[in-house]
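Recap for those who missed Tuesday's class. We walked through two folding examples back to back. For each one, the amino acid string is listed first and its predicted structure tokens come directly after. Nothing is annotated here on purpose, so try labeling regions yourself before you check the end of the notes.
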Amino acid sequence: MCRGIFHALSALAVGDISHASGTLSLSIFRTRSAPCGRRYSAHVRHPFVGAYGNTPKTRRKLNNPKMTQQQNNTSANNKRIAKNTMFMYIRMLFTMVVSLYTSRVVLEVLGVEDFGIFNIVGGIIVLFSFLNTSMTNSCQRYFSVALADINSNILQKVFSSALFFHLTITFVFIIITETIGLLLLYYTINIPEHRFNTATIVYQIFIANSIVNIFRVPYNAIILANEHMDYYAYTSIAESIIRLIMLYPLVILPVDKLLLYSLFSLFVSIIMFLLYMFHCQKNFKSISFSFKYDKSILKEMSSFSGWNVFGSIADLGYKQGVNIILNLFYGVSMNAAMGIVNQARNSIFSFVSNLQVSANPQNIKSYTLSNYCLLYTSDAADDMQC
């Protein structure tokens, strides 16, 4: 205050009246009743006081047990997210290296023609899996909401409804792939005549593989909702190792390599489904395998996933539509090149999406419990008076 008055008098001495009045007003506003000789700054941070100085508002915040508990929860959640992200990136690095290597070996063993057939036939199946893709986010979202509820019966109802919904998706998927998909395979896709019969068998193997993956989605979603990222990472690494080991019989056995590789892919999918199912039955006692659904929950899940269907159709149509167009004009050799490109693109996308996968369960649970302050940074939470 004293220094502010001194500067004001100095300004008056040189005739700057506006500067003098502004300096004096700012000095009075900042210090109010502070004694002369002691300057108070609102911008000085203190490790125990906070960002706004030793004000009554800050003291109320420091003495608020609710705020202290929220800060502890935020710290624990951040540590959990960091740990889950670490597991996801370890998984990503290992699977990316192995998948890129296995793609190279498979291309060399199968040859350009068979590798292209494998990718275009699989692309037709993936094209009709948009319902399953849209349900993945829906399952994880509703499982996370149910876990935030203390009533364990809600989780069982959501899980049973999800299983029933995926059973319905399976029937729809079989009908579409055995009608429209076969029409595409027989009358549209460009496949060499001497490999067409093999391609039709591979097509049916792909259908069985997709059905296994459809029923795997609820178990995968509940593992992620419970934040068992370590198990998810370990099983993904195990899957990559199994696929790597299966390259050896693919090289040495004197059989049709395309059929054998398709059967190996189905075998790996079944193993992973069983591992996920056994883990859920062992660690999550509040859920059990049942198709007894809840109509209201099923309606909500269907409505929520309905909005994701548009994005899934656009994404799959863009990726597999380009694959089909390349096949029509250039044949299966271009599909082989597209398969390598998709493998690299998926690796890059997984690098970006790992952080989001790790943070999604915590964000959904915090929003469900109305802990909005946990969704913001510490500075933003202070501004919201959390």
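Example two. Treat it independently of the first, because the proteins are unrelated.
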Amino acid sequence: MHLEQVFPALYGNKHGYIKRLDPKEFEKRLGELDFLDKYFRVEFNGLENIPEKDGALIVGNHGPFGADAPFVLKHVYEERGRVVRALADRAVFKIPFYRLYATTMGIVEGEPNQAVDLLKEGNLVSVYPGGLRETIKRPDQKYQVRPFWGKALGFVRVALRAGVPIIPIACIGIDDIVMQLRTAEDMKDSFFARQWQKTMNHDKYSTPLWMGLGPLPLPIPVKLTYYVGWPIHLGYGPEAADNPEVLKNLQERVVTELESLIQYGLSERQRSRDRILKAFGMGGRRFLKQAQIVGRQILKATEQFAQAA
């Protein structure tokens, strides 16, 4: 491990921009994801769309805890042999133990100039334009990106300045790894939320009340399936980074492509479930229907308990 990773400010890297990575530490961190990789039965489709060389900006939908992001780093490295430098909310770097974890994973704060530098150097960079707001969305907003990407034009500006394509990646299953009992809005005045907001010095840091696998502190073991889209070549030079109309049009193009991938993934998941039901016949369908009824009853009872508390 390099001192630069532990004390980035000493090397002039105010925002955690670490150029050097310790390969052993990086691979060790990825190895620590093996259990969760199997737990969620992670599957990637379309990884051949990740270029073998040169820079590209990867964008995607984002779910609870940002749990979808590490698997992109893991699978792109293990299956394509390329390191992805992830951009993260500055909150990550205010948590001491996580700051060290982030830097050994090659994660840097989402500062535009740093992102442009990394891309120009030929790196793959990932970013989630919906940010924290997308990770704490309400249950009725599952797999929606448009409400959270509305004013997010920075990622397009960065790609234009660096002269690189944008690659959309959809993750199906990520919005189902927990059940949301109370929304972030409901929880914003709770003691925990106030303490967290005080620590982060911003009122946006409020999280919903989630429940995973029953009383266990584990997420629901749903299958995570990723769909990697074709690289979107923007067709403009760096000067277009200051053109609001171009930025908005390109953002719309990326959002539309990502939404198409998400809808395709959701349709594929439903078709897979239908095939399973057909294989089980009417008995399996009755069992699943009854299980869904019981599940809704348990969820309703849990919500009532949370509200009473």
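Answers for example two:
Strands lie at 43-45, 56-60, 84-88, 108-109, 124-127, 166-172, 179-182, 209-211, 225-228.
The longest strand covers residues 166-172.
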